[in-house]
Amino acid sequence: MQWERVKEYTDIIYERAEGIARVTINRPEVRNAFRPETVAEMIEAFQHIRDDASTGVVILRGQGDLAFCSGGDQRVRGHGGYVGGDQIPRLNVLDLQRLIRQLPKPVIAAVAGYAIGGGHVLHVCCDLTIAAENAVFGQTGPKVGSFDAGYGMALLSRLVGQKKAKEIWFLCRQYNAQEALQMGLVNAVVPLDRLEEESIQWAKEILEKSPIAIRLLKAAFNADTDGAAGLQQLAGDATMLFYMTDEAKEGKNAFLEKRKPDFGKFGRLP
Ligand code: 1HA
């Protein structure tokens, strides 16, 4: 793969090749913990990916073999949020979680090493997770004075069931890759040196499929869990498809031509 850097960032690396975007959290000195700037850069990259017609699948990973992401950078945790250069306390990873969920393209988490705390929730928000054999999963919130009871609770419960999700949150234990596979938290476990290759293989298999079918399936999975926000996404996709029909165009054209629309010419399917 010839990865092309899409844009230079400080805390992340955003590349693309052959229809795949690769976003790497690049703070290995803190096990890829995120600060507000890291998240802002990821949000910008994911917004670009959303609009980039050449990209069909995203791989999200951490720099190095030791960690996918260790959550919020505790050194900059202030009063009410994580504080960046602008001195504003933020929990902007919540915006990123929604963006990953709403992205009309699958996101694959490629996890080597620790996916912990807010970093664990990030992989939970991704559509698929490929784990290296050295991957370690867990929540730490109640240990370090935090919790993510949004997607961190609801999606995790969907994946592993409520009893297990409560265990994960209440006991803050760490789980290895095989345990994660067993509880449905990840899709596959591969040797560390095959993580890259395997993630790309999964991405390529998805890329061979119908983009709109994949997009609508992702929206439907979200609608099943995300309430009105999930329904909005699925309904938005329905509107996108409807706009492509002659029936919808008749409505617009009639308005512009100041005439009554003639919807009678369109048949009704069973
Ligand atoms: O809960 C939320 C949120 C909830 C709602 C809304 C928004 C949220 C946003 C974020 C979060 C959270 O993420 S809370 C949870 C925060 N994260 C953690 O509690 C994990 C902290 N880290 C660890 O438990 C461990 O470092 C580790 C299991 C990931 C790795 O252990 P290891 O391999 O033994 O390495 P370690 O020596 O601990 O770490 C290497 C270096 O990385 C250390 O720095 P050094 O001593 O070399 O100067 C360590 O301090 C640093 N580091 C690791 N994780 C973080 C970190 N520095 C800052 N923040 C970190 N998260």
From TrEMBL:
Question: In this chain's numbering, which residues are marked as the site (Important for catalysis)?
Answer: Y82, Y243
Q: Which positions in this protein are listed as binding substrate?
A: 31, 70-74, 82, 114-118, 140, 146, 243, 258
Known catalytic reactions: 2-succinylbenzoyl-CoA + H(+) = 1,4-dihydroxy-2-naphthoyl-CoA + H2O
The EC number(s) this enzyme carries: 4.1.3.36
Q: Which InterPro entries match?
A: ClpP/crotonase-like_dom_sf, DHNA-CoA_synthase_MenB, Enoyl-CoA_hyd/isom_CS, Enoyl-CoA_hydra/iso, Enoyl-CoA_hydra_C
Q: Does the keyword Cell membrane apply?
A: no
Q: Which cofactor does it need?
A: hydrogencarbonate
Instruction: Check the record and name the CDD domains matching this protein.
Output: crotonase-like
Which pathway is this protein assigned to? Quinol/quinone metabolism; 1,4-dihydroxy-2-naphthoate biosynthesis; 1,4-dihydroxy-2-naphthoate from chorismate: step 6/7; Quinol/quinone metabolism; menaquinone biosynthesis
Q: Where does hydrogencarbonate bind?
A: Q139, T140, G141
This chain's protein is named 1,4-dihydroxy-2-naphthoyl-CoA synthase
